[in-house]
Write a structure and sequence with these properties.
With about 325 residues, this protein is an alpha+beta fold. It contains 11 helices and 6 strands. The chain has a 4-stranded antiparallel β-sheet.
Length: about 325
């Protein structure tokens, strides 16, 4: 009879909790390094958060041959317009590039939005007919400030929502451990973005929220098995019980993480430049989220000190005892 596919040898128990101090030390090191990098370099906020203009351009084909952009010539043309800081980034193809222009400084009484649109018009005129503008984004300072605040609030509310859900679903020890693991995932992901100087915009905020949901889902699966085993093995040492629970859910973790990783990797490799930041955040987030579910959440739960006689188990035992008494 077909019993499904198992990707983890359950007959062998890997001593995850026995080496938890080593993995926790690595995790703490990555976490502190991420905070240091963020404090020193900060995030490279994209157009969404700091305002400005972005153009995705492509050289038109000539005589049936793909066009080729001269980045040096582009820098001279756009730099001569006197629009402040201009960044030109070559994309995967020689015919494609991104042009970023900073938020335009205006005199008192001038409309910032109109000044930014005027700058965008100058860039379009300077590029000429041989270059096609495939995408244009213009974001003013007022809108960018509102978007930055909205992004911060979205992540904050998500964290509180997760905290209260896990607290209601399990107990406060589980909730604190889950939040520590999720904050760990988000902080290290932000640290990598800062280290690589990658653009951070609204799509990356969406990726962080998706990452938080993915990470907490994986963590809850492990916690649910720990809760079941707390009922089943009432005299087993807590570190052994958690080690058993992690190993019992490892097959599910490997399958879920592996299949999701393949899908996101395809988006990152074959997707357009617009979605690569989102895909990278998800790609790295899946790896670090899987790491935290195994090596961060459970060790922290053990350190916090989950109780064997917490209310859920007590109620279950009372219900079982009552049912047994009724049968006799």
């Amino acid at each position: 009879m077909f019993t499904g596919v198992d990707f983890w040898p359950h007959k062998k128990i890997f001593p995850v909790m026995d080496v938890r101090r080593t993995f926790v030390s690595i995790t703490v090191g990555m976490f502190l390094a991420s905070i240091a990098i963020l404090a020193i370099h900060g995030l490279n906020f994209g157009i969404d958060f700091k305002g400005g203009s972005l153009f995705e351009i492509q050289a038109k084909s000539q005589d049936g041959k793909p066009g080729v952009l001269d980045i040096g010539d582009l820098r001279q043309k756009v730099g001569a317009l006197g629009l402040g800081d201009v960044q030109i980034q070559q994309l995967d193809k020689a015919s494609d590039a991104l042009i970023r222009i900073e938020q335009q400084k205006v005199q008192e009484g001038q409309d910032p939005e109109r000044a930014q649109q005027a700058a965008a018009g100058k860039v379009q005129a300077a590029l000429g007919e041989s270059i096609e503008i495939r995408r244009t984004e213009v974001v003013g300072s007022a809108v960018s400030g509102e978007l930055k605040w909205a992004g911060i609030m979205a992540v904050t509310f998500a964290m509180f929502g997760i905290l209260f859900y896990i607290w209601f679903r399990f107990e406060w020890q589980f909730a604190v451990a889950a939040i520590v693991a999720t904050v760990h995932d988000i902080t290290i992901t932000l640290g990598v973005f800062s280290l690589l100087n990658m653009d951070f915009g609204l799509s990356e905020v969406a990726a962080l929220l998706t990452l938080a949901g993915y990470s907490i889902n994986d963590t809850v699966v492990v916690f649910d098995r720990i809760r079941e085993n707390l009922r089943r093995y009432k005299k087993m040492a807590l570190d052994q019980l958690m080690n058993l629970s992690i190993n019992e859910t490892m097959s599910r973790t490997v399958v879920t993480s592996g299949t999701t990783l393949i899908a996101v990797l395809a988006i990152y490799v074959f997707g357009t430049e617009v979605i690569k930041g989102f895909a990278f955040a998800m790609l790295f987030g899946i790896i670090i989220g899987t790491w935290s579910s195994i090596f961060v959440a459970s060790p922290f739960l053990l350190w916090v000190g989950v109780k064997r006689d917490w209310s859920g188990i007590a109620k279950s035992d009372k219900a079982t005892a009552a049912a047994a008494a009724a049968r006799t």
